[in-house]
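[Archive record]
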Amino acid sequence: MNRWLFLFLCYSSFVWCADFLYTFLCVPIWGSIGTLCMLGVLLYVVCRKHVSFAADHFSKWDAAAIASLVFVYLIHVHTPDTDWDVISYHILHQQPLPWSQVSESFFPSTMLHSFLFPLADRMSLAFRHVLGFRLGTLLSLLVGILIYIQLRQIILKQGRVLSLCAWQVSLLACAIATAINVLPQIHTYYADLRTVPILLYFLDEFLNGAERKSAKTLLLMAWCIGIEICFKLSAGIPLLAAMAYFLWMSRTCLSVRMIAAGFGLAVLPLIPYAYTNVLETQSPFFPFLYQIWPSKLLLHGKDSSMIYGDILFSGPQTLVQALVWPFREIVQAKPFGMDRKEALLVAFGLVSSVVLWRYRGAAIVGSSKKLAIAYGCFYLFGALVYHSFMRYNVGLDVISGLACGFLGIVLWRKRSFYRECGLLLLLVLALQPFGFFRAQLWGAKDATHPPLYRDRTAGIADAKKIFRDRDAGAGSIQFDKVKAWLMMCSQPTSGYAYLLKDTVPIIDLDGYTPLYIDIDGTYENPTARTIYEQHMHKWLGNGMYVLLQTQENRPTYLSDGIKQATLMGELIQMYLRRGVQLRHYEQIEPSFIRANHNITMAEAVPADAETVFQDYLVEKDASCTLKKTFEGTSLYCVTLALEPDKQGSIPKMAFRGHIHVYDPSHQIAEQRTFQSRGEYVSMDIPVDGELEIVFDGAEHDAKKLMVLSYEESYHGE
């Protein structure tokens, strides 16, 4: 174990210890510093003989490789990470335990994510608090550098046999460290990358370590497995197979006491998070492993496996399908399947591992079979468990890169056909990062994290918020009226809600339906539904607010068969179908989103059963006539704004227009005018006949007018 991995393990253990003390003893985070220091001393005592504290002797090539990772991070550092998973649950999971996610809040990160073990996210909290929201992702960059150092260490040990020089080792390690699922994560809050260092530690011990492990090494590995499971439940499963191998090879020096101690160390990290889950759901791994630990909040019966299985992503179902899995993806990628670039790397990695298994050359005969075995374990696990979402199995990308790199170097030093095959493998590996660079550096203008030079003015405005986005930045007085937040799992906003006001509950409108499937109640859970109704009865119309996200890159998984004129209208209609009406729309500009962007906030109130919603987009000098549903007088609750851009922000441009109110004989009974400096305009208009809205224009004549309207039967004075 190198010193950098040791520091990473120490930091993760410190965070876990703080969670443990806070969960069981209510010790504040800062009050546990003394205990954390003691834990650090204990880890040093246990690991001092197994940690290399010597200088790494980095070459200029290593410096260049690390500098390239830093460069990729810096060109995106001004852009806040507001990806789907980050806003859905990663930010929410950064807050300390314990807190109720059922009785106080209600599945604030959706039923699928609310009870995931949060250790990987908790590690980002200190960075976000100290450095701010944008620089809170610095931990991911440090992990990316650690991955490079570990790969360099593994390659160096093999490089002595392969006769690799310094620049070749650095180039190969950098190419693997910038694999398709590694590089895009170094400027995000995603947790997948943080599972790789421990995976590489086990791989290094498997490839280059002694066959027989000492007792302290085995105990350290047991602790690492527990920490890895706390990072991501599925990431620890391949390590269990490796641990079984290490135990078998060291069986002669094992004792019952040592096995019990190792088991205890592996289970100990799980205790605070599993305990919290059991209190809430009766299941330590909710909603997974429901067959072993059933929960009153989960469905039971013949359809349960379909609900809690990986129904969204169809992957290999048999061993034969698993073996041809990446090759099939190269030919025809699935909508939720493996990207063709990912499939290419995995396919070449599979072929390389088979060749390494059969290879009889003298160069790497000692470790080639071990690498092939490791690859096979990760491959089968990825094919049968992760299948379609390769970001979850980033370790497979890394091992695929190692297999391609080792075999490519061996073949490249041969002649004729073998040399060309080796060059092809190395080219596949070297070209992996270019898909990311093409999309993020000089590709689409609407990239998720555009570089600074793409829009220099907006980039500089965003850069000015660095170190200034530790809190919401929207003003606390503005949110005094908020008593609860409401969201839908199809459009999660819990991260935004928590950052704006973290002292109020967050209610998931679809939390009583497992995942985000069939809102018609086919898979509805009665117990969860009862708890949900209690929350809604308490908060709906009593200070409950909604944050609306209308980005075009945020798909709606809940298929209601809704097709409105605007994305905003689709969301409003989805809320209305669940008995929630939105009113009092306003724009907020918190510091944790892009500069010159805004989020729509609206009050949630009970909807009348007969309420009808409609929306329109009106061109300049054009009009729209609202459809009339009810006989007699109707009350139109009309809200006007310019059409949101692709990021869901309402343009800050002045607009104007007028409204014609017709009587039943189609004569104009009233005419109103409206104008705005860019904010929402709302009004309630009783109408006997029809209502026509005319858009006179806006600044720069750049946008359409968005019309949002509720129609209700009028029971006026």
The CA atoms of residues 241 and 377 lie 8 Å apart. Confidence is low (pLDDT under 50) at residues 301-313, 515-519. The first strand starts at residue 484 and ends at 487.
